Amino acid sequence: MPTASNDNYALISLRDTCTLTSMSKTMIHRLRIEGTFPAAVALGEKRIAFSRIEVQAWIQAKLAARAVA
Q1: DSSP result, 13-33
Q2: Residue 6 CB: number of other CB atoms within 10 A?
């Protein structure tokens, strides 16, 4: 069973996701609709979160694409 200290299973709020990516909520929602951003995890009727490791992998891919361009 995963432990709370295991970042592979950590969920982060939309606000923290905005901070981590330096993007607005609107931009994150737009990318989610396009299917180019990690899928959200529904926590309740009006609350979502994101997998920290998936968001970090998305950022890494953006940095890698920059290096190639």
Answers
A1: EHHHHHHHHT--HHHHHHHHH
A2: 10
